[in-house]
User: What shape does this take?
Amino acid sequence: MDLYEAHGKNVRITLLNGKVFQGKAYDYTSALDNEPDPESIAIDNTELYAPEIKSIELIED
Assistant: This one.
């Protein structure tokens, strides 16, 4: 799943360092709008950047 597809959905995002964030994804920002940073999405007031993300899983409600 791409970051923009996760926007507004309940997801589990696993980072490359093993940390896991779970909840409703919001505030998707494309790389063009987030310069100089890469694209990102937020869960629980934490901004997660695409290069840090290992996987994104959809969680059924």
